[in-house]
Amino acid sequence: MAWLVLFAAGLLEIGWAIGLKYTEGFTRLVPSILTLTAMAGSIALLGLALKTLPIGTAYAVWTGIGAVGAALLGIALFDEPATAARLASIGLIVSGIVGLKLVT
Fold it and tell me: How far is Cα 42 from Cα 17, in angstroms, rounded to an integer?
């Protein structure tokens, strides 16, 4: 169950990372409220997951989900470059997340 909570926290981290782009420096009300809500939810769920999971593993997985999701959505939504090196680097993050899950 803790892994599912951590995954949900990671999804909210993706949401707030992408949401920051839409707030335009917190000058737009609705995106700002949604982004701040996603931030609070992400931290709250991370805290719940940490009741059971080791801090190092949980934090690395949480940030990894956020980093991979934000990078992929940056490519899809904001026309950021999808170079081979960038995609390979994202793959390395994913393999690290999987590795941490397997050894915990």
Answer: 11
The string of DSSP letters for 48-100 reads: HHTTTS-HHHHHHHHHHHHHHHHHHHHHHHH-----HHHHHHHHHHHHHHHHH
Alpha carbon separation from 20 to 17, 24, 36, 58 (Å, rounded): 5, 7, 9, 23
CA distance 16 to 83: 24
Helix (H, G, I), strand (E, B) or coil at 15: helix
Residues 24-61 have pLDDT tens digits of 999 999 999 999 999 999 999 999 999 999 999 999 99
